[in-house]
Design a protein that fits this description.
The protein is an alpha+beta fold and 249 residues long. 23% of the residues lie in helices and 19% in strands. The protein has helices at 12-21, 32-47, 56-59, 66-71, 75-85, 158-163, 232-236; strands at residues 23-26, 90-96, 106-109, 122-128, 139-142, 154-155, 180-182, 189-194, 199-201, 213-219. Residues 95, 97, 106, 124, 139, 199, 201, 213, 215 line the site of 2-oxoglutaric acid. Residues 109, 111, 199 line the site of fe (ii) ion.
Length: 249
């Protein structure tokens, strides 16, 4: 099996940071070989016709590319995910997040899963294959926002988020004021994020190259998941190593 990650540390301290902040950055974690293969895979996804409204090749990326499929159950992927979620995990989705020059980015939002049961986690694993600068397709976060476990965070701009959802809230663990943070990350970076974290994406500059990115999402079973994008055929396919990971419950 080809290595996916370089050596890294994800022990109790790092896990505690993820739980406190809502996200955790592993800079340059992807091997050079993995970056090459991912670029190839995401280029192929990007070239597929997306005239249908469902954007199937992006939203079901692993079903359209064998390398992306193989990462669902890559031993290093599963180890990292289990270090966060524990032994009982399910695959949720794999979505290509390529952003070409001029892409408008994404408004502020959070995602749903088991709002009433914090023991059920939902983890997003972002692969920022060629990284990004804050002002060029950069991911934005609000430390501590995930602890509110609010699936309904929505804002069109930083100002709207500040004046709206953030206005009357603090970091539930530290008591500190909430703040918007713009990340910049190098090539090969992996970002872990709890799904209830507030996040948004700055636009990609006109004339910039494409930001190659894919997200893999996993969760503790227990609830239905709105984002569970996999076809029945794919669930039944028997992806090697993913036995027991593909079912809803
Ligand atoms: O494109 C990105 O960097 C983030 C996309 C996003 O919000 C998500 O996949 O949940
Ligand atoms: Fe998101």
């Amino acid at each position: 099996m080809e290595a996916l990650f370089k050596p890294y540390e994800f022990a109790v301290e790092q896990r505690a940071e993820l739980d406190r902040d809502g996200h955790f950055v592993l800079p340059g974690l992807l091997t050079e070989e993995a970056c090459g293969r991912l670029t190839e895979a995401l280029t192929q996804i990007q070239a597929m016709p997306r005239d249908d409204e469902e954007y199937l090749p992006s939203r079901f990326s692993a079903e359209y590319n064998i390398y992306l499929e193989s990462l669902i159950a890559h031993p290093q992927m599963l180890q990292l995910v289990r270090d966060v979620l524990g032994a009982e995990i399910r695959y949720d989705h794999c979505v290509a997040l390529n952003r070409a020059g001029g892409n408008g980015g994404s408004a502020w939002h959070s995602h749903e899963y088991a709002e009433d049961d914090p023991s059920l986690g939902f983890l997003r694993v972002f692969f920022y294959v060629n990284g990004f600068q804050a002002d060029d397709g950069g991911l934005k976060v609000v430390r501590g926002s995930h602890l509110h476990r609010d699936a309904g965070i929505r804002a069109e701009s930083d100002e709207e988020l500040l004046a709206g959802w953030m206005a009357d809230k603090v970091h539930p663990k530290t008591g500190e004021a909430l703040a918007i943070e713009e990340l910049s990350v190098p090539r090969g970076t992996v970002v872990l994020m709890w799904t209830h974290a507030a996040h948004g994406v700055n636009g990609r500059k006109m004339g910039s190259d494409t930001r190659w990115c894919v997200v893999y999402a996993y969760r503790n079973p227990g609830r239905t998941s709105r984002a569970r994008w996999l076809s029945e055929g794919f669930e039944q396919k028997g992806v090697v190593g993913a036995e027991g990971l593909m079912s809803l419950y």
